[in-house]
TrEMBL record:
It is a single-pass membrane protein. Gene3D superfamilies: Cytochrome c oxidase, subunit VIa. PROSITE patterns: COX6A. It is found in: Mitochondrion inner membrane. One of its GO terms (biological process) is mitochondrial electron transport, cytochrome c to oxygen. Pfam families: COX6A. GO terms for molecular function: enzyme regulator activity; oxidoreductase activity. Keywords: Membrane, Mitochondrion, Mitochondrion inner membrane, Oxidoreductase, Transit peptide, Transmembrane, Transmembrane helix. It comes from Takifugu bimaculatus. This is Cytochrome c oxidase subunit. The keyword Oxidoreductase applies. The keyword Membrane applies.
Length: 102
């Protein structure tokens, strides 16, 4: 089987590329980090901040679904009814929210 001239040239180019050194790899990643990663993270942070400021922070209505907030055993901390990282504004107890105001 004989290779065409273009295929032979492509094969030689790929073979030469595989034997070349890896110098400049760290520089490439440094440039990509500075040019793409830092601005991308900055844009995401700004977007999260703006969306957080627009959020009304209203307490959702309490609906007593039978499959949620089941307490078959008390929690081993506090009064046994509050979760470990309980937030009175967002986490409802089985009988409803603790307070109705912010």
């Amino acid at each position: 089987m004989r290779l065409s001239t273009a295929a032979l040239a492509a094969r030689r180019a790929f073979a030469a590329a595989s034997h070349s050194g890896h110098e400049g790899g760290a520089r490439t990643w440094k440039i990509l980090t500075i040019v793409l990663a830092f601005p991308g993270v900055s844009v995401c942070m700004a977007n999260a901040y703006v969306k957080g400021q627009e959020h009304p922070h209203e307490q959702p209505d309490f609906v007593a679904y039978s499959h949620l907030r089941i307490r078959t055993k008390k929690f081993p901390w506090g009064d046994g009814n509050h979760s470990l990282f309980h937030n009175a504004h967002t986490n409802a107890l089985p009988e409803g929210y603790e307070s109705s105001h912010h």
